[in-house]
C-alpha cells in the first residue's frame, strides 16, 4: 500500500502547528477527508442542489438520483439484500437512538430486557437508559475480562426470557477489541432476541457483510470512514423495518395526513422525515469508493503493521511505564490504542503532544462505564488510519518520551 501516495489526497495533512507538520492520530473520533470526497460534495452543491423526491423538474430529479445512488452504494458496501433496507441518518448516534426508540415501541413489551455491554459508547447506553427510565424496558450489562474481551459466559446467564434485544459494539472505541458478533447473534436468535450492532468503529477497518454478520440491525457513521460529518446509515432486515414505527414525524415520511389520522410510507422513507443531507450522502458514496479502491487486504495489512510498531515502541522505549489497554500485542484488534503514561494525567499528555504537532484524544471517550470498569478516570488514545505511516508513530513516541521527561523534572507537590 502506497501510503505516501494516499497522503497526497488529504489536504489537511500538509498543515503545520507551532512550526511542526501535523501528525493526526485521532481517526477513531473522525477520519480526515480525501480531496475526492470534498470535491464530490462541493460539486453537488455547485451543480445539482435541489430538494429530493419532491420536484418534477430536471434538477430535482438529478438530486434524487444522486441521493438514491448513494443509498444503493451503501447497500452494496454492506452487502444488503436491497437498498430499501438502508436508512440515512446523521451518524451512528442518531442511528442507535432511532433503533432504541422504534424497536422499544414496535417490538418490545413492558418488562422486556435489553442486554448491552460495559464497553459501549454512550450512544448505545443512554437511549436504552431513557427507555428504562420511562418504565418500558429492563437493562442489563455484559462485563469484560482483564484483557478487554467480553465475558461470553455472561450471555449464558442473560439470554432467554425476558431478554428481547442484544446490542453491542462490533469494535470498542477505547480498547480496539473486535467482538464475536456472529457467535453472539446466533445465540441470541436461538433464544428469540433481536441483535443491534454499533459498527461505527469496525466499518472503517474491515469489510462488513451484514448477511455474514448475523445481526438484525447495523449502524455506522460516514465521518469515521473518510466521509463527511452529518451522514451515516442504519441497515435493518426489511421484515423488521416494516414492523417498526417511525422515529420522527414530518414531511417526506408520510403517505397521507388528515386531521383525524396519518398513514406512513414504507422503509426507508418512513424513517427519513424532513430534508435529508443529500450532499453528505454524495460525499459518503465517494468515500466508500475511495476506501474500497485501496483494498481491504491492504488496509488490514497496513493497520497490522502500525499496531505491531505501536506495541514494539511502547515496550522497547517505556518498559511498562506506558500501559496499553485492551487486547495485547499480536492479538486481533483494531488500530485504537488507549493508554496511560505513568505519572502523567491523560489530558496533560494530550496537551503536551499537541505542542509537538501530534493530535491525540484524551478523556473518557464517551465510555464512562468502561472507565469505571478499568479503574481509571481517563485515558489517552491514539488511533491511526490509512494515511498514517511508521514515521508518524515514531514522532508520537519521541514526543511521549519528552512528555515523560517533563513530569520527571516536575517538583513533587507539597
The total beta strand count reads: 17
Global morphology: globular
What is the strand arrangement across the widest sheet? 4-10-9-8-7-5-6
User: What is the CA-based Rg, rounded?
Assistant: 22 Å
Mean pLDDT: 96
What structural class do the secondary elements suggest? Answer: alpha/beta
Give the uncertain stretches in residue-range form. Answer: none
Distance between the termini: 53 Å
Short description:
By secondary structure, this protein is an alpha/beta fold. It contains 14 helices and 17 strands.
How would you describe this structure to a colleague?
The protein has helices spanning 3-7, 35-47, 58-78, 92-107, 126-133, 152-158, 181-190, 210-213, 238-241, 278-294, 296-318, 346-354, 368-374, 390-409, and strands at 16-17, 20-21, 23-24, 86-89, 113-117, 138-142, 163-169, 194-198, 217-221, 232-236, 254-257, 262-264, 322-324, 337-341, 358-359, 361-363, 379-382. By secondary structure, it is α/β, with parallel strands linked by helices. It has two domains: 3-25 and 295-409, Aspartate Aminotransferase, domain 1 (Alpha-Beta Complex), CATH 3.90.1150.10; 37-292, 3-Layer(aba) Sandwich (Aspartate Aminotransferase, domain 2), CATH 3.40.640.10. The strands form five sheets. The protein has a seven-stranded mixed β-sheet with strand order 4-10-9-8-7-5-6, with helices on both faces. Helix 8 (210-213) links the parallel strand 8 and strand 9. The termini are far apart.
